[in-house]
Task: inverse folding
């Protein structure tokens, strides 16, 4: 962390979005003593890297939500972004409040199906209860279908089969290879082997043709899951979707419509500044960068953006973001894992030690300066 920086009253950094990128940026600015305001529509940070375990283990969800106010006090504002006035340098919140900024860090993240993502405007306690309710649904069902075999889908199937080995778990994926395309082939093959060894049934190279008709996350008798390339119907008692993410771009789309990529992410230069705006940065999932959307990368972006704001205030040259070889760890239940570090496959026990045991929840509580509940 840096030493305290003396700035004049005109400096105020507004961070929109309190995910992994947002809290990393806030902690950096806090350590420098630079005035900032973190804005999020929720009252607590969601450590969604561990959200899938909160689906299978009673009581775990409470470890995945960390209150913002306890860490950032008056530097946190609960509110929903609805627009940005670039001329007046103001962030516009639902309800009419306007927040002035000298520098803006957009860290709005992405959304996706529950339980992997939780972006509703509810209290932390309500969010925790939603996960606890899903644990009960999981416990009721004898046959669970997971739709989507990317990183979230394979982790979800592994968590289910690890905690409930007697349940039937079927993973349906539209592609033949599992997990993220950026991973080395040997790593992706290891994912498949782990799932098969745990007893997960794999249906690969097929899509669910009646996805929009299915009731998600609710245990029911004889849910018919139809496939696009087979007359067979998979009969389930619970269906969980892990089918991808969507960039949260609604709040800034009006101001930056000409700076958005096709998926809604913001085009940035090598300094992570939104193209054409020296005082506006985009970090995390909402930055248009050719790399996987990961908490690890979001933290790197945030630290660079804050470093460049500090550099600009000191009138020093800005630092460029350099992508390294891919590091990605997949937790396959608490007792197994696969992954690669700097592009090289690593031993499964290393992944278990590094990630699978606690999914980095302890790290987030420590970074937020709070004590994790037992």
Result:
């Amino acid at each position: 962390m840096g030493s305290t920086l003396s700035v004049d009253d005109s400096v105020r950094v507004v961070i929109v979005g309190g995910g992994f990128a947002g809290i990393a940026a806030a902690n950096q600015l806090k350590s420098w003593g630079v005035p900032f305001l973190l804005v999020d529509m929720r009252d607590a940070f969601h450590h969604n890297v561990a959200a899938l375990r909160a689906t299978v283990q009673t009581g775990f969800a409470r470890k995945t939500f960390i209150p913002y106010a306890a860490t950032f006090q008056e530097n946190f504002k609960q509110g929903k972004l609805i627009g940005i006035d670039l001329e007046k340098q103001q962030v516009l919140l639902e309800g009419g409040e306007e927040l002035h900024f000298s520098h803006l860090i957009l860290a709005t993240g992405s959304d996706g199906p529950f339980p992997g993502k939780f972006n509703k405007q509810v209290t932390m306690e309500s969010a925790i209860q939603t996960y606890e309710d899903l644990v009960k649904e999981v416990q009721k069902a004898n046959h669970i279908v997971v739709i989507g075999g990317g990183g979230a889908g394979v982790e979800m199937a592994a968590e289910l089969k690890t905690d409930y080995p007697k349940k039937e778990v079927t993973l349906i994926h539209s592609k033949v290879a599992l997990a993220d395309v950026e991973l080395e082939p040997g790593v992706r093959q290891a994912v498949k082997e782990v799932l098969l060894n745990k007893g997960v049934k794999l249906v690969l190279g097929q899509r669910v043709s009646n996805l929009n008709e299915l009731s998600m996350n609710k245990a029911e008798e004889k849910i018919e899951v139809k496939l696009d390339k087979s007359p067979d119907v998979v009969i389930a008692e619970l269906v969980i979707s892990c089918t991808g993410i969507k960039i949260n771009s609604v709040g800034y789309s009006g101001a930056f419509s000409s700076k958005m990529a096709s998926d809604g992410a913001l085009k940035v230069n090598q300094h992570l500044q939104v193209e054409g705006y020296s005082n506006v940065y985009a970090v995390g999932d909402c930055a248009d960068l050719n790399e996987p959307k990961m908490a690890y990368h979001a933290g790197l972006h945030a630290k660079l953006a804050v470093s460049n704001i500090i550099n600009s205030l000191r009138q020093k040259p800005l630092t460029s973001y350099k992508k390294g070889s891919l590091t990605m760890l997949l937790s396959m239940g608490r007792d197994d894992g696969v992954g690669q570090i700097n592009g090289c496959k690593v031993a499964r026990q290393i992944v278990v030690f590094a990630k699978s045991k606690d999914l980095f929840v302890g790290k987030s509580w420590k970074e937020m300066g709070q004590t994790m509940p037992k």
